[in-house]
Each structure stands twice: as structure tokens, then as C-alpha cells.
Design a protein that fits this description.
Elements (H helix, E strand, L loop, with lengths): L7 E3 L2 E3 L3 E3 L8 H9 L4 E3 L16 E4 L2 E4 L8 H14 L4 E5 L4 H14 L3 E5 L16 H14 L4 E5 L6 H11 L3 E4 L3 E4 L1 E2 L4 E2 L5 E5 L4 H14 L4 E4 L5 H10 L3 E4 L1 H5 L3 H15 L16
Parallel strand pairs: 3-4, 3-16, 4-7, 7-8, 8-9, 9-10, 10-15, 15-16
Antiparallel strand pairs: 1-2, 5-6, 6-14, 11-14, 12-13
The chain binds flavin mononucleotide.
């Protein structure tokens, strides 16, 4: 095995190891990004930021589910103008790539936020397309190939940084959305965001979350996420960042075998910030055991006929 077996170059980013912090887990501050980098993450993705500051939904915003959590934070964020200062500060300190996750309610919104985040020094932009589209209340931008394509095209014009599109699993066929993102110019895909879910209290007989519905994450969604990665890798050559329920090296390796080149870890970080180190160590041991020179050697192997 080569000494740099864990490092990976993918979609214009070079990581020391194939793990990233998933968006939304450690907020917006340089201190928390630095903590995550120090605990072994190969890159950090920020919580999603939009044009204007937003307070988010009323409490409760998170509820425990079996083998996971359901959250409906409502995208609380300081807005890109204030957050740009934090991006600049983070870039002076962080020694790992900083991916800025952005959201919007129209293609123009996305383009403006992407432009400002790029100017502030983001190493890449990740599009969170799971937020509702105002003109089509209830539907997510990431559920419509047409809207998704418009957003990706506009952002592509606004930035020359690597563009990662994070796909929603709340669709009938995720490969149709993957195709729309790829044809519109995505450099990589993050697969997947949370699954739409609900929790109900039997005593009060009402939904628990302030927003009624939220997104399920954690171990419960791993098989779904893995299937989405597998389906996309089966049809397209684009780099895939696997995300959903990853908590140990074995989970990460399953995603590589399904076709991902990098993995993101979210919910598991809340339980154990050291998870990046233990996953990386486990991947290294696995590669050695299988006589693989690098992660690239095992990407997509589960597709062998
Ligand atoms: C509390 C919480 C907040 C999140 N916020 C965001 C966000 O702002 N933007 C986004 O794209 N994804 C967000 N996510 C989704 C995660 O990035 C990830 O896609 C999802 O949780 C699945 O990965 P996991 O099972 O490892 O947590 C959030 C997830 C959680 C649990």
C-alpha cells in the first residue's frame, strides 16, 4: 500500500483522507470547523447558508428516532454577507478544504450566495437543494429535474469553484435528478440528504417537531443512501460523495464499494467527534488487508458482474 493511500483528489479537491464533515452538524464557526479538522476530517462542509439571515423553526427541532434522529431546523443561518467574514477567517486557519453549503429559493438566490461564498474563499460549493421552492410550495427544488438544472446552470456561471450537488432521496428515481445535475455542469454529487419523516407523541396525540415533519438521518437511512449511490454509480461516471448513516469504517467501505470516492459523516459526529480518526484508521487497515493501493482501487467494486 502506498504511504498516501488515503489521500484522494476528486472533483478539484484534494483531501488527506476520504472523510468529510456533513453539512449542518457543527454550525458556522471557525472554532468548530477547526475542532473537526483536528479530530481527523479530510474536509469540512459548513451548515447551509442563504442570502438573508434566518432564525429557523420553533422548538423542538430535533427528535430521537429508532436508529437515527429527525430534525427540522428550518435552515437557521446568519446570511452570506456576515458568514463571508467567517469563511475568510476559517481559510486563514483551516488546513483542510472548506466546502460552503448554500441554499436558496430561486436560481438567482443560489447564484448570488455561491458568488459571495467563492469570493470569500470557499474551496468548493455544495448545493443543498432540499429546501422548499417558494413558487411551488411543498416541493423541493431537488425534486424537479427542470428546477435543479436551472439552479446548477446559474451557479456554474456565478463561480469557477468545484460544484457539488447534494441530492435529495425524496424522489421516485434519484438517477433522473443525478442526470439533470450532471448535464447542467455538476462536478460531483453528494448522495444523500435526509429522508422526509415524522414523529408523533402518543400522550399529546400531536406531531413532536415544531415544523411537524423533518428529515431522518443516522443509521436508519444507510441502506437507502447506499442504494442511491449504487444506482447513480451504475449509470454515471461523476465523482460521488456518499452520505447517510455512516458511523464506522465498515459503513464507509460499503459506500466506496457502491461507487463513492469520499464519505460524509453527520449524525455520528454528534455522538463521537473522534469518528473521523477511527473510520480513517479502519479504511487504511482494510486497504492493506485487500492489497489495495488506494481508496480509488476499491471504488465501485460492488458493480462487478
Ligand atoms: C441536525 C442536522 C442539521 C442538518 N443541516 C443540514 C444543512 O444545513 N444542509 C444540508 O445540506 N444538510 C443538512 N443536514 C443533513 C446532513 O448533512 C446529512 O445529509 C444527513 O444527516 C445524512 O447523513 P448522516 O446520517 O451521517 O447524518 C443536517 C442533518 C442534521 C442531523
Amino acid at each position: 500500500m502506498e504511504s498516501n493511500a488515503l489521500s484522494i483528489s476528486c472533483a478539484g479537491l484534494t483531501l488527506n483522507n476520504p472523510t468529510m464533515l456533513a453539512s449542518g452538524i457543527m454550525g458556522y464557526s471557525t472554532e468548530s470547523f477547526q475542532r473537526i479538522a483536528n479530530s481527523g476530517a479530510g474536509a469540512v462542509v459548513t451548515k447551509s447558508v442563504g442570502i438573508q439571515p434566518r432564525v429557523g423553526y420553533v422548538n423542538p427541532t430535533v427528535v430521537q428516532a429508532e436508529s437515527g434522529i429527525i430534525n427540522a431546523m428550518g435552515l437557521p443561518n446568519p446570511g452570506i454577507t456576515i458568514f463571508s467574514e467567517e469563511i475568510k477567517f476559517s481559510k486563514m486557519i483551516l488546513r483542510v478544504p472548506l466546502v460552503v453549503s448554500i441554499f436558496g429559493y430561486s436560481a438567482e438566490d443560489y447564484a448570488e450566495v455561491a458568488k459571495k461564498a467563492s469570493e470569500a474563499g470557499a474551496d468548493a460549493i455544495e448545493l443543498n437543494v432540499s429546501c422548499p421552492h417558494v413558487k411551488q410550495t411543498g416541493a423541493e427544488i431537488g425534486q424537479s429535474p427542470k428546477l435543479l438544472s436551472e439552479v446548477v446552470q446559474q451557479v456554474k456561471i456565478a463561480t469557477n469553484k468545484p460544484l457539488i450537488v447534494k441530492l435529495s432521496p425524496n424522489v421516485t428515481d434519484i438517477t433522473i435528478l443525478a442526470q439533470a445535475a450532471i448535464e447542467a455542469g455538476a462536478d460531483a454529487l453528494t448522495v444523500i440528504n435526509t429522508l422526509k419523516a415524522i414523529a408523533i407523541d402518543v400522550e399529546t396525540q400531536t406531531p413532536i417537531l415544531g415544523n411537524i415533519k423533518g428529515g431522518l438521518s443516522g443509521a436508519a437511512i444507510k441502506p437507502v443512501a447506499l442504494r442511491c449511490v449504487y444506482d447513480i454509480a451504475d449509470q454515471f461516471k461523476i465523482p460521488i460523495i456518499g452520505c447517510g448513516g455512516i458511523k464506522n469504517w465498515r459503513d464507509a467501505v460499503e459506500f466506496f464499494l457502491a461507487g463513492a470516492s469520499i464519505v460524509q459523516i453527520g449524525t455520528a459526529v454528534a455522538d463521537n467527534i473522534e469518528v473521523f480518526q477511527s473510520i480513517t484508521k479502519g479504511i487504511e487497515n482494510y486497504l492493506r488487508k485487500k492489497n489495495a493501493r488506494s481508496v480509488k482501487d476499491i471504488v465501485g467494486l460492488a458493480h462487478r458482474k
